[in-house]
Design goal:
heterodimer; A: alpha+beta; Alpha-Beta Plaits; 4-stranded antiparallel sheet; 3 helices; B: 227 residues; Gyrase A, domain 2; 4 strands; 18% strand
């Protein structure tokens, strides 16, 4: 055996020769350095890029949605104006523009036209019932009166119909009718008692 | 290391075997070659990094350019949500007012209907109505007094104003005096519950003479708040 014969024991490591080591070590160093740079700098940069791409996508979508939003705003403004108009008209139906100051004389006039006798007019306190009334709110208040009217049944009907025509809205409730004992010489009369609720716009304090 | 100074111990042996001489490469060359190969991944990484920086700058510029539109979008969206809430609130208030108006029972229509339901030979004496209940006292003339009461009871039950059934509380024979003679009558009392589920729009208000209420319902229809 001479020095120049190959050594069987070191055959496994024959791949790593000094020449190859000289060649591979800088390559390995380059790969490790690249990996380090990629790990420390590129990965956060990729995350940042993804965030920016997401933000850009969102902003592009927002820009594309703008015309729809402008149209939507127009529609909503129209709806708002229509709803306000409807509310105004409904409040007009409930409370009108007239004051209740002349309600008594109005009732007297309607009673005379219907040919019935307005026997009594008694204002009631309304605070206890106010909470549950859907017609109240937005500056609408109500006054209640207990009324007793006497006349023939058809005339009483006519009187009630006249009251229902008036504005502000007059609501008739808790009514009670009582026919008088028949007097053969006189026309049959009926006494009608009822609660009259009148709605009105409260004055806004300056 | 100068190439000409290198000792090639195997030269003779190679020549004997007829092999071509292996060219010798200096360590410096190997190192340079290795460094060149090592620079490739580094260059790739740096190139990718540069590309990313360029892309990032592009994206930032694009985001900045789009930002006013995005801000406008956000403020419009917020405004629309607020406006939608206001419209919803207004519509709810309107619905409440409409429900309240339709819940108002027309007393004139009710009394007209009651008179129409009352058969011949039945006299109504007292009637009381509150928000939920109606009670009626009257007298029915003989003959067939009980039949007359029954007809009234059934007619009331069929009416739009009342819930079924209409209850007869009592019916008893009474004596009533007219101008010339004593006549036999049956006094009765009927109790009924108002059917508050039926809104005014279902009643034939005009036919019942309740023109004021009919006009209000018509006005609500014209506002588009009733089908």
């Amino acid at each position: 055996m001479t020095n120049f014969q190959p050594d069987q024991a070191s055959k496994g490591l024959s791949f790593i020769t000094p020449e190859r080591a000289l060649l591979l070590l800088p390559v390995l160093a380059g790969i490790v350095l690249s990996g380090a740079i990629a790990g420390f700098a590129l990965v956060p940069a990729v995350n940042k890029l993804q965030e920016l791409e997401k933000l850009e996508k969102e902003n592009l979508k927002k820009r594309d949605d703008l015309p729809g939003l402008v149209r939507g705003k127009g529609r909503l403004l129209q709806q708002e104006a229509r709803s306000k108009f409807q509310k105004e008209k409904l409040l007009q139906l409930v409370a009108g523009n007239r004051s209740l100051a002349t309600l008594l004389s109005q009732l007297g006039a309607e009673a005379a036209k219907a040919n019935v006798i307005l026997e009594s007019y008694e204002p009631q306190t309304t605070a206890a019932k106010s909470a549950a009334d859907p017609l109240l709110g937005d500056g609408i208040k109500k006054d209640q009166q207990l009324l007793v009217v006497q006349g023939s049944y058809p005339n009483l009907l006519s009187f009630l119909r006249r009251l229902e025509w008036l504005t502000p809205l007059l609501v008739i409730s808790d009514l009670s009718l009582e026919g008088q004992k028949a007097d053969p010489k006189a026309a049959a009369t009926t006494t009608l008692k009822f609660t009259l609720t009148a709605y009105y716009k409260a004055l806004v304090q300056p | 290391m100068a190439e000409h100074l290198q000792v090639d111990l195997l030269r003779q042996r190679r020549e004997e075997l007829g092999l071509s001489p292996k060219p010798l490469v200096s360590p410096k060359q190997l190192l340079t070659k290795g460094a060149a190969y090592g620079l490739v991944p580094l260059a790739v990484v740096l190139l990718v990094g540069a590309g990313m920086v360029w892309r990032q700058q592009q994206l930032q510029a694009s985001v900045l350019e789009l930002q006013p539109d995005a801000n406008l979008h956000d403020s419009l969206l917020q405004g629309n949500i607020k406006l939608q809430g206001q419209v919803l609130k207004l519509n709810q208030a309107n619905k409440s007012l409409v429900d309240g108006l339709l819940a108002v029972r027309s007393s004139s229509a009710f009394l007209t209907a009651l008179a129409a339901l009352t058969p011949q030979g039945v006299q109504l004496q007292t009637a009381r109505a509150d928000s939920g209940t109606f009670s009626l006292k009257g007298q029915a003339q003989a003959p067939a007094a009980f039949e007359r009461i029954n007809i009234l009871q059934l007619a009331m039950a069929e009416s739009l104003f009342f819930k079924k059934p209409v209850r007869l509380k009592k019916a008893q024979q009474e004596q009533a005096s007219s101008a010339k003679e004593q006549i036999e009558v049956v006094g009765f009392e009927l109790i009924a519950d108002f059917d508050n589920s039926k809104a005014q729009k279902g009643f034939p208000l005009q036919q019942l003479g309740a023109l004021g209420m009919a006009a209000r319902v018509e006005a609500i229809k014209q506002l588009g708040l009733l089908p």
